[in-house]
Amino acid sequence: MSKEEEEEEYTSDSGSEFSEYWVDWFLGTKGNEYFCEIDQEYITDKFNLTGLSSEVERIPQSVDLITDNLKIEDISNDLRDHLEYNARILYGLVHQRYIITSRGLVKMQEKYKKADFGYCSRVFCQLQHLLPIGLSDHLGVSSVKLYCPKCEDIYNPKSSRHSVIDGAYFGTSFPGIFLQSYPGSVPIHPTQRYIPKVFGFNLYEHGKIARWQELQRLKLVERLAGRGIELRNKPNGYIVNKRNNNEDDEDNEDDENTDVQIKDV
Questions:
Q1: pTM for the structure as a whole
Q2: Integer Cα distance of 162 and 191 in angstroms
Q3: Is the same domain home to 145 and 70?
Q4: Where is the composition biased (Acidic residues) (predicted)?
Q5: What is the spatial distance between Cα 256 and Cα 238, in angstroms, rounded to a whole number?
Q6: Helices (H), 15-147
Q7: Has residue 199 been placed in a domain?
Q8: 36: pLDDT strictly greater than 80
């Protein structure tokens, strides 16, 4: 999306081009539901703006605009439009850094609980809540995507308003850091998979792959049980029974190097 198109999109979506508080206007603009509010002290800390001068022009004035310390009536319309464009980019890039801080993670967790980022469209994920993710930490590479912690896959946003948001505003590390910080948010991974059929019969190649995958899963469950690790339908991991856990892993290597022959039915 070009600068002119982006400016038109933001202007047309808001009731007035500049509301009383810039952050309230920005977060209230349709399509910006994925963003959380950045603490003012965070965005005014120069340390948190390190390295952004190559991406954003007029950073001091853009910060003043974001924090409502810029007298808009004293500048020309052209400069105001330019600063507004820069302020949106600056807010997005600082947002990438802010959401992996302890304070930012708390705010994003609240949005995650409310499913502000949407639900996974995969049937077996049963409306699992999604997390925003970027495919790159740099501007202009890719739009924001949505990560499902259940099937561990990524999806395009359903709304065209969200699909034009730059993925750099969320970064590549956010879902991983979020799930490490809140292990209780790691869902149960589904064991069901869809197998295409024709009149009730599995398709040859798909059935072959599905049987191989199921065999590998059963082998893993058996190996874990042999080590005192119980696989249950519970979020975030396994239950380790009280026993000696210092056994060597030689049998793991043997299992990985074993060729499995699958007979076709």
A1: 0.72
A2: 31
A3: no
A4: 247-258
A5: 21
A6: 22-28, 40-43, 59-66, 77-98, 102-113
A7: no
A8: yes
